[in-house]
Amino acid sequence: MALLPRSPAEFGSARYWDRFFRQRGQRPFEWYGAFPELCPVLHKYVRPRDKVLVVGCGNSELSEQMYDTGVCEDIVNIDVSDAVIRQMQERSGSRRPKMSYVLMDMLQMDFPDAHFQVVLDKGTLDALLTDEEEATLAKVDQMFAEISRVLQVGGRYLCVSLAQAHVLKKAVEYFSQEGWVVRVHQVAGSGDKQQFVLPVFVYVMTKFRKIPGSAPQILEICPEEQDKPMRVESSEQLVAAVKDRQHYALLCSQLSKTPCREQVSLDLCDKESGKPRYTLNVVDSPSVKPSRDNHFAIFIIPQGRETEWLFGTEEGRRQLASSAGFGRLVTVALHREQHYEGMAGIQAELSGKVMELAPPGLPARQQVPFLSVGGDIGVRTVRHCDTSPLSGEYVVEDVKGDGASYFRRLIFLRNRNVVQSEARLLVPTPLPGQKKRRKDKKKPSPAEPPAAIDKSYLCCEHHKAMVAGLCLLGGPDPLPGASLAVLVVGLGGGSLPLFVHDYFSQARVAVVEIDPSMLEVATRWFGFSQGDRMQVHVSDGLDYVAKLAAEAPAQYDAIMFDVDSKDLTVGMSCPPPAFVEKPFLQKVKTILKPEGVFVLNLVCRDARLKESVLATLRDVFPLLYTRHIEGEVNEILFCQPSPEGRRDPTELGARARVLEGALREPGHPWDSSYVLADMVQAVKIL
């Protein structure tokens, strides 16, 4: 500890450095960045015939190694410590005749103007710029001015640094304003030998003559895994890019030393576009007993299945990791904007990067398995992309589900891990005696008409529960032939209103949708259509209900709310908060028949907000049932305006079986994977 300064200001003191090097003796002191790590960058920017100045040389071996390996020989080393200069003169002696050590202050150098092609600084700027006090910044300005003076036009100032934000920002702003080209290289680490957890960077500032006026700044970053630099628009963006890499290095260091108690998520971005290419989640399973072969594995989530509970939730991924039997599992989600060359291509691309996330205790040269469902990366075909003023960017895509089924999905990209609407696609089957057509080599164009939609199938569990809620309607037998007036607020892909329309032959369905783009999407891509018994009103649901309450009360047997919130800052994503405020709910009650049912899809992660919503609903509707959707946040609420219609779950189950039996009549295909009685027998009465 005696070697450390009492205050950061002593880093700029010659007396401190004299004492430091006398106490340390002949042992070389490398702040950071050993020669093997720096060598690729030095070879790139230092030519053998260059005249090189090393400022603040200390007793680092860097100059000697550059000389001995032929990087260059004409090197002048300067330092303010007389002790270290004499030490280095003795150490180098006559073995390196073209290299010299000179006692000199870099703030006041004796060299003539434009004397060097390269100025090399290894940690000196970091040592000087310990704070942002006025006196410190004045010294740094003086240092930069002297470096600029002694460098030739076209010369390079190479600064090896840990790139603290204030240090990088100062260097970038100073030299870019002088018209220099600024490029930041991340230096490859040396694994366990690296003294610092933070990565090392080299700022490469190339001197150009300053052009009068406002010349554009040229700022670039070159990550360690690639030679091609990436252009950034501002010093703030450059500092942010460096900070991202520092945070990643800290994360990798922590993961290599201790198991992670909470799941860690990070994006790996495409080198060309900068857009996310892979989303990684690191999941540790403390219950798994470690052995040689079960330390670490990578799981590639098939395209289009990243929204499923098993892959898209923390609890699901925890279950996946435990059942896979590995101490640490990294799940990898593939992004829809990217192209992938199969499992082998993904493995080749990720192998080096995922090893940085390896757990402690992983045996050396251990083979890390890449896992997936069925050994492939799934199928995803984007059919349509567009932007809505109300819903933002969205995509319609076809994905392969578990097994041979294909599904069409509507995804809002502001919340890309949530499926907004989903429908199963009908796969054409050949007639008896008809041969299967050979696969066309030509891929289908997204502009082609969409494949047929299976309107008999409700993909979403909460939609199944909402339909089952119709069992609460009055009358001895809730048969599909009954004349019903149904209001659905929120169209999406149209699956819910379509199902009600098709299976309840006398139902009149009114749909309210605020976004006209969604009506176009539902019609073009999800088989939705309007008719005598199905009408869509493009309007704000709040305004539409308020108008009905004033003009035509008590007209609907069932009202269904399946509308998402555009405000992601609220802990409730469905419905928007205004839809569950007491004055509006009273208007909903006004347009509902006395024996009717109001069905609400509630998605709320805020426990206090959820309790507040339930309390408000109880104030307005005397009879309230709730049905939690297993494995999801969704909760379906069935609200009735009169307590006289109360039925226990057993009775509801019996009514559901009657309803389902009628729905299974000939000509009405029905998927056997769900049963209405199962949906309502699990309700709770609040």
Automatic annotation (TrEMBL):
Region (Disordered): 429-450
Domain Methyltransferase type: 53-158
GO BP annotations, alphabetical order: methylation
Comp. bias (Basic residues): 434-444
Gene Ontology MF terms: S-adenosylmethionine-dependent methyltransferase activity
SUPFAM superfamilies per UniProt: S-adenosyl-L-methionine-dependent methyltransferases
Cross-referenced InterPro entries: Lys/N-term_MeTrsfase_sf, Methyltransf_11, SAM-dependent_MTases_sf
One GO cellular component term noted in the UniProt record for this chain: cytoplasm
Keywords attached to this entry: Methyltransferase, Multifunctional enzyme, Transferase
CDD domains linked: AdoMet_MTases (cd02440)
Transmembrane stretches, start-end: none
Family according to the record: Belongs to the methyltransferase superfamily.
UniProt-listed NCBIfam families: MFS_SpdSyn (NF037959)
Name of the featured protein: eEF1A lysine and N-terminal methyltransferase
Source organism per UniProt: Grallaria varia
